[in-house]
Structure to design on (688 residues):
DNA sequence: TTGAAAGCGCTAACAG
DNA sequence: CTGTTAGCGCTTTCAA
């Protein structure tokens, strides 16, 4: 077994004080301490290479100071989000552990179960995770949960939700394309991300409906269409001589479509103007640059962590009778359209 | 504070047995148990919604059954690796927590410190993390560490290392380009990833040296060169009428270069043939497709986790006098060249 | 086959 | 200002 660990008892002995005192020194609580004692204890701890045992501490203090983040995967979108979340949690004095289900429901449930067993102080969970089985794991457990990218979630499961405004952004994208001269439109979805796809589709429809004139529009399902067929599918939506406005589920689909169209000699942005979603790194480096909808992961993280921390602190404050539990709810985050060559 | 948690004591009471028995039942140890008791306890646990407290368990049993993974960031490369690691750890009966330092040394140290405080059973750490400060945190702690993508690490810090063979792969890339007719070569690095960049550079040099004839070659540093200048920089390395063979640090640099070259009317692959590294998802969807060096994250993960588990189990076996500590060391993983249009 | 009891390392009253 | 002490929830001998 691992080399016997150094405990506060050892440190106490080394410093010649009681081990409660060591705990006091090391946690710098509001307790008054003699300068000399502090020095001696810190010195002893350093000398012995003492490192606090987090399990013992959480057990004793009934909180772990740890937050958990459950992601569907570490793709570019969620990867960036995770990084922002880690930084933000850190800034708020918490530690964030990240788990990705790699799109495996089984792994996802297991991750969830582990976080609950570890009594994380709070949990961040993506909307797709809320299958009936998963939900059952969560419901009734006291752990506060903040959902993200969750548009259809069981009520009373979370203390709050924060969603990027894909709907509003797609609405805006249609308008942008119209302003650039498009008079017929197509949207290409991906079924694999249901809820988030629906939002985009709704936004696309909103956009079409709010145009000053009636235009032709189509919603495409390219999931089961061979890439080579994409241009034909897409161009079928084009009516009249004006360019077609094409809104894609994400940048991957957008760039793939762009390439296939160009390959067939269909000029982008002259014949087809394209808008993607996510502003992935390659959007700026393909040719032409891909107009895309960008999200500020920093702000997203700030909102999510903020909600959680407010709840956590609010709760302890409430216990102290200082404050009512902090209010929460559903927040929507505005997105930004980054215009590049593909819609020029 | 959180709703009082259900403990084994509650379960014991509900089932009418001692709480030691509950523990026995729930952990299905080698202890003989009466069928009836098992049933009663499980039933009670379910009814009460019992969930084991992981902190208490780790504290008591002196191991957490948890592994930690420290990444420099959640980019495509490490993101995929992290997913594979999670799956593999799971398959081996461990739980893996992932942390990314977002390239912030401060966050990185903190993550490390937390994992050590949490007494993870084992730690996976990328090579770039081994700054003097970080190394100091680790050294002397009993936690077993497996390093990955670490070419210059302090001895005695890790129980093993597993590295992708970027060097061999880049050597092969040069050969591939030569076979496709290139007679002058250039490599473009990125300083931001030192060790891994050095490996590629060495491989490039190896490749040049092993060619059947002497050729012109150049190593470029494009970090501080404006993108618009890249074509000029790159083409300066081109000698003679044959196409230039261009090996890039990664697919991002490769695709960016490809675009800039094409923009200036320099044909790829006719004038310049390009090979990238990482086989990022867009490599298959840019035009022309980008030839790239692919890594099997699955195999990488299997090697890393395997090393760790062997050590962990070997150690407990050794304690039991069954086995010597498992041997480990440095493993190199072969990579694969995926040939696409950019080097046709 | 079950239970009593001694910790695991640390925190948090509370008493001195 | 410092020390005593009673847990936190669970695991693990060792007796019964």
């Amino acid at each position: 077994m691992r080399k016997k660990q150094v405990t506060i008892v050892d440190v106490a002995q080394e410093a010649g004080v009681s081990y409660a005192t060591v705990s006091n020194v090391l946690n710098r609580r509001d307790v008054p301490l003699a300068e000399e004692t502090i020095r001696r204890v810190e010195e002893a701890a350093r000398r012995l290479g003492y490192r606090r045992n987090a399990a013992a501490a959480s057990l004793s203090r009934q909180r772990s100071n740890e937050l958990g983040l459950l992601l569907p995967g570490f793709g570019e979108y969620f990867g960036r989000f995770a990084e922002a979340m880690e930084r933000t949690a850190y800034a708020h004095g918490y530690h964030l552990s990240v788990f990705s289900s790699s799109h495996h429901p089984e792994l996802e449930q297991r991750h969830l179960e582990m976080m609950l067993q570890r009594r994380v102080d709070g949990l961040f969970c993506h909307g797709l995770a809320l299958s009936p089985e998963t939900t059952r794991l969560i419901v009734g457990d006291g752990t506060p949960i903040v959902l993200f990218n969750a548009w259809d979630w069981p009520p009373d499961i979370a203390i709050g939700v924060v969603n990027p405004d894909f709907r509003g952004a797609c609405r805006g994208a249609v308008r942008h394309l119209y302003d650039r001269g498009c008079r017929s439109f197509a949207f290409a979805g991906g079924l694999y991300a249901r809820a988030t796809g629906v939002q985009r589709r709704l936004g696309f429809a909103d956009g079409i409906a709010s145009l000053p004139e009636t235009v032709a529009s189509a919603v495409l399902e390219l999931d089961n269409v061979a890439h080579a067929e994409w241009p034909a599918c897409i161009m079928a939506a084009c009516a009249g001589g004006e360019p077609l406005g094409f809104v894609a589920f994400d940048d991957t689909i957008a760039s793939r479509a762009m390439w296939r169209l160009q390959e067939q000699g269909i000029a982008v942005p002259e014949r087809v103007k394209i808008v993607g979603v996510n502003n992935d790194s390659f959007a700026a480096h393909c040719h032409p640059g891909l107009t895309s909808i960008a999200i500020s992961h920093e702000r997203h993280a700030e909102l999510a962590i903020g909600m959680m921390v407010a709840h956590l602190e609010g709760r302890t404050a409430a216990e102290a009778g200082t404050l009512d539990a902090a209010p929460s709810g559903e927040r929507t985050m505005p997105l930004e359209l980054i215009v590049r060559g593909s819609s020029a």
Remarks:
- Residues 24 and 31 of chain B are 7 Å apart (CA to CA).
